[in-house]
Design brief:
The protein is α+β, with helices and mostly antiparallel strands. The protein has 2 domains: 3-240, ATPase, nucleotide binding domain (Nucleotidyltransferase, domain 5, 2-Layer Sandwich); 251-424 and 458-492, 2-Layer Sandwich (Nucleotidyltransferase, domain 5). Helices cover 38% and strands 22% of the residues. Helix 2 crosses helix 4.
Length: 492
C-alpha cells in the first residue's frame, strides 16, 4: 500500500532539487536537474522561467514513478529575490533577472536613493538598497527596456511562478516581498504603495501570505503535467535560504543558519527589527519572525570553478588534497569576491584575489584557500551581525557543502563557533516538504530531522586563523583600487 508523503522542490542557481518525504520526515527519494544561468556579460545572470517549470514537472514525475507513495501536498522554494515580469496573460516578457549575483542595477540604485533617501529606505525597508534587492532590477528593465516594460503587469519569483503554474494563484510570501526593497514596508508587513508606484509603476503586486500557508490547490491541468493528484494543497513557498533554515530548525531567536551552497547565506533570527547598512533586515518565513541576514556572492561557485580548471579534478580528490595542505594553505590567502560581493562589503565591483602564490603551490593549496576564504567571509559577516545588535547563540549548518567534514571544520576553526548538523542536510527542498506536511498534519522539525552531530572548533587552529583573518581583512582595502580598475575593463 502506498505510504502518505509530500513533495518539496527548490529551484536553485545551479540546479533544481526535489524530494519525496514521508509524513514522518523519512527521505524516500530525491532527484536533481542541473542547469546554468545565462550570462549576458559581466555582472549579468538570467534564467528562462520555462526551465523552472520543465524541471519541476520532470522532478515530480521521477519522484513518483515508483508509485510507492500517495502525495498529499507540495512545497516550493527558489533562489531569490529574482525578477520575472509577465504581461496580463502571465506570459514572461524576458528571462528572469537573478538575485544579488546579478549586479547590473548600480545606476538605478543611485537614482532611487537620490529620490527616496538612503536612510529612509533602510528605516522603512530594513535594508540598504543594493544589487540584491528586487526593486532596482525592476527599475533597470523600465529604463533599459521601456517597450518591453510597457507590457509588464505582474512580478514573479521562482517559487511564486511554480505556485501560479500549479494552482492558478498569484501570490507571494512576505519574506520574498521584504527583499523587494524599497517596495515593502517591513514594519507594517505590507507593500508600500507610494514607493511601489515610484519604482515599479504599472505592476500589479501580488497579494501576500506566509510561506507555510496554502496558496491554493493543484489544478487539473497541472496534475496532468506533473503526474500529481489534482486538488492537493500547495504552499505559498519562499526564498531558498529561508526554506533551508526551516529544514534544520534554525528559526528560533538567537539561531544563525549557515547555508553551504553555490553561495554562502547567513540567516540570524532576531526578536525585533534590526538594520545595518551592510546586512539585510527582513521579515521571516514564519509569522512573527524577523531576521538579520547576510550573503556571500560565491562560495561553492569558487570550488566548482577550481574543479573545472583541473581536467582531472573532482571535489572528493581536491578535498583530500586540501586536507593535506593544512591550515593557512601554505601561505595562500584568497578573497572570494569572484562575482562581486554582497554582505558585508556590498561591492558589485569587487573581484577575486589570490595572494601569496608561488611556483610550489598545489591544487590542494588553492582549494584549501577557497574553503578558508568562505570561513573568513563568514567570520566577517558574524562580526557585523553582532555589531548591529545580533545575539548569536546557536549555529546550524545546512546544504551540500556540509556533506564532507573538512569545510564545516574549517569554518568552525576560523569563527571559533560550534555548528550543529542535522540528520538530513539536503536543504531547501526538504524545508519545502516540511512546510507542505504542515498543511496536512502537525509536524516538528526536531522529530523530522534530529541533530546528528556538532562540529566543534579546534582552539589551536582558531588561534592560528586569527592572524590570517587579520591579513584577510587588510587584503580587500589594499587591493580595491586595482580591482575596481580591472572590473571597469571587464565591463567594456
Amino acid at each position: 500500500m502506498p505510504r502518505n508523503a509530500v513533495i518539496g522542490v527548490d529551484i536553485g542557481t545551479s540546479s533544481s532539487k526535489g524530494v519525496l518525504v514521508g509524513l514522518d520526515g523519512t527521505l524516500i527519494r530525491s532527484a536533481v536537474r542541473e542547469h546554468t544561468p545565462a550570462r549576458g556579460g559581466p555582472g549579468r545572470f538570467e534564467m528562462d522561467a520555462a526551465v523552472w517549470w520543465e524541471e519541476f514537472t520532470g522532478l515530480t514525475r521521477e519522484l513518483t514513478a515508483a508509485e510507492d507513495a500517495a502525495v498529499s501536498a507540495v512545497g516550493v522554494s527558489g533562489m531569490g529575490p529574482c525578477v520575472l515580469l509577465t504581461d496580463e496573460h502571465d506570459t514572461p516578457l524576458r528571462p528572469a533577472i537573478l538575485y544579488g549575483v546579478d549586479t547590473r542595477s548600480v545606476r538605478q540604485i543611485e537614482r532611487i536613493e537620490a529620490r527616496l533617501g538612503a536612510e529612509e529606505i533602510i528605516r522603512r525597508g530594513g535594508s540598504a538598497l543594493t544589487t540584491q534587492a528586487a526593486g532596482p532590477k525592476i527599475a533597470w528593465i523600465a529604463e533599459e527596456e521601456p517597450e518591453l516594460y510597457a507590457r509588464a503587469r505582474r512580478l514573479y519569483m521562482p517559487s511564486s511562478w511554480l505556485v501560479r503554474r500549479l494552482t492558478g494563484a498569484y501570490v507571494l510570501d512576505h519574506h520574498s516581498a521584504s527583499q523587494c526593497t524599497p517596495l515593502y514596508d517591513t514594519h507594517a508587513r505590507q507593500w508600500y504603495a507610494p514607493w511601489a508606484a515610484e519604482v515599479a509603476p504599472g505592476i500589479e503586486l501580488p497579494p501576500l501570505r506566509w510561506s507555510g500557508e496554502a496558496a491554493g490547490t493543484l489544478t487539473a491541468d497541472a496534475a496532468r503535467e506533473t503526474g500529481l493528484p489534482a486538488g492537493i494543497p500547495v504552499t505559498t513557498g519562499t526564498i531558498d535560504a529561508w526554506a533551508e533554515a526551516l529544514s534544520v530548525g534554525a528559526q528560533h531567536t538567537g539561531d544563525l543558519m549557515l547555508m553551504y551552497g553555490t553561495t554562502m547565506f547567513l540567516v540570524h533570527t532576531v526578536p525585533e527589527p534590526l538594520t545595518s547598512e551592510s546586512l539585510w533586515g527582513t521579515v521571516g518565513a514564519l509569522p512573527g519572525t524577523r531576521n538579520l541576514a547576510g550573503g556571500m556572492a560565491t562560495s561553492g561557485a569558487v570550488t566548482n570553478w577550481l574543479r573545472d580548471l583541473f581536467a582531472d579534478g573532482d571535489h572528493a580528490a581536491l578535498t583530500r588534497q586540501a586536507a593535506e595542505s593544512g591550515p593557512g594553505a601554505n601561505g595562500l590567502l584568497m578573497l572570494p569576491y569572484f562575482s562581486g560581493e554582497r554582505t558585508p562589503v556590498m561591492d558589485p565591483d569587487a573581484r577575486g584575489v589570490i595572494a601569496g602564490l608561488t611556483l610550489s603551490h598545489t591544487r590542494g593549496d588553492l582549494y584549501r584557500a577557497a574553503l578558508e576564504a568562505t570561513g573568513f567571509g563568514v567570520r566577517h559577516n558574524i562580526e557585523v551581525i553582532e555589531g548591529a545588535g545580533g545575539d548569536i547563540r546557536r549555529v546550524v549548518a545546512v546544504g551540500g557543502g556540509t556533506q564532507g567534514s573538512l569545510w564545516t571544520q574549517i569554518v568552525s576553526d576560523i569563527t571559533g563557533r560550534p555548528q550543529e548538523l542535522r540528520t538530513i542536510t539536503v536543504g531547501a527542498s526538504y524545508g519545502g516538504a516540511l512546510l507542505a506536511a504542515g498543511l496536512v498534519r502537525d509536524v516538528s522539525v526536531d522529530d523530522w530531522n534530529p541533530v546528528r552531530e556538532t562540529v566543534t572548533p579546534n582552539p589551536g587552529r582558531t588561534e592560528r586563523y586569527d592572524d590570517l583573518y587579520a591579513l584577510y581583512r587588510r587584503l580587500y582595502p589594499a587591493t580595491s583600487d586595482v580591482v575596481h580598475a580591472l572590473a571597469a575593463l571587464q565591463d567594456r
